[in-house]
Amino acid sequence: MKSFSTIQSPHHFFFTRFYTSITSRTGLTFPAKLFVCQAKSVSFHSGTDGSINIKVVPTTLLAAEKEEARAVLTLFFKKLGLSTAIAARIINKSDLFIDHLLSKLHQKHKSRYLVGRELTTLEIRDALNTFLDSLLEEHGNNLVRVVEYYPDPPGKENSTVLPIPPPRPTLESKKHKAVSRVSEIDPFAGKLRPHIVYLMELGMDIEQIRTIVRRFPSFVYYSLEGKIKPVVEFFLELGIPKEDIPTILAKRPQLCGISLSENLKPTMKFLESLGVDKKQWAKVIYRFPALLTYSRQKLKESVDFLQEIGISDESIGKILTRCPNIVSYSVEDNLRPTAKYFRSLGVDVGILLFRCPQNFGLSIEANLKPVTEFFLDRGYTVEEIGTMISRFGALYTFSLTENLVPKWDFFMTMDYPTSELVKFPQFFGYSLEERIKPRYARMKESGVKLLLNQVLSLSSSNFDKVLKKKIEKMQVNQDSSFISKTIQQENQN
């Protein structure tokens, strides 16, 4: 048996199609075998007879997408003039075509699945409708039989005669219609639609709502009583201030489209089981509201990785509470490669991730390597750079041009050796104009010398005390030296 490589992927669909061209009078080419699955690990083996065996791990997400595909196909058939009963009869016998629809969806949005980002309902429908429109243009009146007999190509005889619908609105026209709906007057109430009024009472203005709808058109069609209001009231019960609700909805309007009982609350319980502090939900949701929209598989993959690099369960809970957006990073594309890179610098990855998880959302090529090269070019060794990042986890999160370079240039005018930055890399975390320059100027004026961390890390009152003490000590030393010199001179005379 010949074995192919095992493929792992974070929260996305892996799909493989083995094509055999089957051309008929319709001109349609079908895949002979189609496999669509979502799995953490999928193994492929070829048998002696040339068949392909695949281990499929079924998921609720795939099932949900299949249901959405059936709903889209049902509406498509009804627009073609078929009754609901006939459309349902055809679709119930068309599982292979439904799988084919999903393969097209996954192909179109492959990059989204690879980084673990789920599609919205509107995005799924747009992709499937576009594909169905192209099939209708290609097969015309024969489309129903194409669906019904897939993957065996039907003949044209006895085909169902269907009316050809006008072209569907483009995504841009749908978006424009949704945005215009924000400011439309409800013909029955004679004022803005209830959910728009409600959002304005929460503190949003019309333009803010339009901005949300431009990014997520479905939001404008959400029911006030059925979707928006229950979610808002639930957040208020969690202790989220009313003034924070508009920010949360602007960041993740999809929250209002998710069932409280079937999705939001169970997801929160699951996260609490992973260590998220339930007393901190108000802060967690405000920081990263998208956390509640990820699937359990995606969340568990992130947690599994944290455990893999040696972070304790207690620390994982603290990370998820303090920096919940860590789950938005792809394990294979971000977390694992970044961990490997920092290990090459001699850094304890578990400690670094706990202290500053933001590092793991940065690009290795665009962000991390340039910072390393910056310090290497200035004479630091890899070991010294590793010590600096270990002592100050946020070091790599600063901009080279706006932070590191100007602060380095000023540091070179200060009376400190470059080794001082290895001891105190936190230097780069202080404001150049508001902290570094004024504090250093005061120290120079006083005529004393303090350690770099004393100049910057002390509070204003403590800095004043240390400076005063140093000045007094210097004066005492000067007085003692003067007295000693006077006595020596008198003895000589």
TrEMBL record:
The keyword Transit peptide applies. Keywords: Transcription, Transcription regulation, Transcription termination, Transit peptide. InterPro entries: MTERF, MTERF_sf. SMART domains: Mterf. Pfam families: mTERF. GO terms for molecular function: nucleic acid binding. The keyword Membrane does not apply. This is Transcription termination factor MTERF5, chloroplastic. It comes from Lupinus luteus.
